[in-house]
Write a structure and sequence with these properties.
254 residues, alpha/beta, Rossmann fold, 7-stranded parallel beta sheet, 41% helix
C-alpha cells in the first residue's frame, strides 16, 4: 500500500471543493473527486486541474442524501488506493424561503444534504481511517456565526455541522483522528453567485464594501485553511471551527 495520502472530497466539481482538490494535489495527496450527478459543473475540469498540479485523482458520482452512495464512494477509494486519510464534507445546497413558507419536505431535503450528508461522509470515511486521519466539515457564517433571514433551514444545518464536528473530535480523539470545521464567509462560488437563493454577483460586489478586507473571498483562500487542518502541521488542532471571512463577522458596521 502506497504511503501517499488519500482525500475524500464531496462537492468537488466546483467552488471550495474543487479548489481543495487542487490544493491537495499540490501537496502530493491523491483525491477522490465526489460529484453529484445533477451538478451542472463538469468534474473533469477539477480532475484536469488536479493533474496539472501534478496530482492523481478519480471522479466518483455520489449523492450525499444516500448512505449507500456515500459508502460506495469510500469503498471506491479503498479499492483504488487502499486507504482514506482525509475526509472533506463539503457538498451542500442553498435554498431561500421565508420561514413561514418552508414545507416539511423543503426543510428535510435541505438538512438531508447540508447536515445529514456531512454525517454520512464522516461516518463512511472514519470506518477506514487510521491514526493521523482527519475530517473537516464545511459550515457557514450563516448558522455558524449569524442567523440569516429567509434561510432558517440552511442556517440550522450549518449550525448543526459544528456540533457534529466537535462530537467527532471528542469521540475519535483517542484513536488519533482529528475533526474540525471551517466557516467560510462570503466567498465567490457558484452557490453565492446564485441570485435567486443567495446574494448573486451584484450582492457580492456590494458586500465587498463592508468587509474589512475590502472584497469577498476566493475558494482557494478557504481551501488553504482546509489543507492546513488536514495536514500534520495541525496535529494538535481538533474540535475547532475556523472562520475564513476577511474579518466580516468581527467588524462593527456603521
Amino acid at each position: 500500500m502506497s504511503e501517499q495520502p488519500v482525500a475524500m472530497i464531496t462537492g468537488a466539481a466546483s467552488g471550495i471543493g474543487a479548489a481543495t482538490a487542487v490544493c491537495f494535489a499540490e501537496r502530493g495527496i491523491r483525491v477522490g473527486i465526489g460529484t453529484f450527478p445533477g451538478d451542472p459543473h463538469d468534474p473533469e475540469t477539477t480532475l484536469r486541474d488536479v493533474r496539472d498540479a501534478g496530482g492523481e485523482g478519480v471522479i466518483v458520482e455520489v449523492d450525499v442524501r444516500s448512505t449507500e452512495s456515500v459508502d460506495a464512494f469510500a469503498e471506491t477509494l479503498i479499492s483504488t488506493w487502499q486507504r482514506i486519510d482525509i475526509a472533506i464534507a463539503n457538498a451542500g445546497i442553498l435554498r431561500g424561503s421565508a420561514f413561514g413558507a418552508i414545507t416539511d419536505e423543503q426543510w428535510h431535503d435541505l438538512l438531508n444534504v447540508d447536515l445529514h450528508g456531512v454525517m454520512r461522509t464522516a461516518r463512511a470515511a472514519l470506518r477506514h481511517m487510521a491514526e493521523g486521519g482527519s475530517v473537516t466539515a464545511i459550515s457557514s457564517i450563516a448558522g455558524g456565526v449569524y442567523g440569516w433571514q429567509e434561510h432558517a433551514h440552511y442556517a440550522t444545518a450549518k449550525a448543526g455541522v459544528l456540533g457534529l464536528t466537535r462530537s467527532l473530535a471528542v469521540e475519535y480523539g483517542p484513536r488519533g483522528i482529528r475533526a474540525n470545521a471551517v466557516i467560510p464567509g462570503l466567498i465567490r462560488t457558484p452557490q453565492s453567485t446564485d441570485a435567486v437563493n443567495s446574494l448573486g454577483p451584484d450582492g457580492l460586489d456590494r458586500a465587498g464594501g463592508y468587509i474589512p478586507w475590502g472584497r469577498v473571498g476566493h475558494p482557494r483562500e478557504v481551501a488553504e485553511v482546509i489543507a492546513f487542518l488536514s495536514s500534520p502541521q495541525a496535529s494538535y488542532v481538533s474540535g475547532q471551527a475556523i472562520v475564513v471571512d476577511g474579518a466580516l463577522t468581527t467588524a462593527m458596521r456603521d
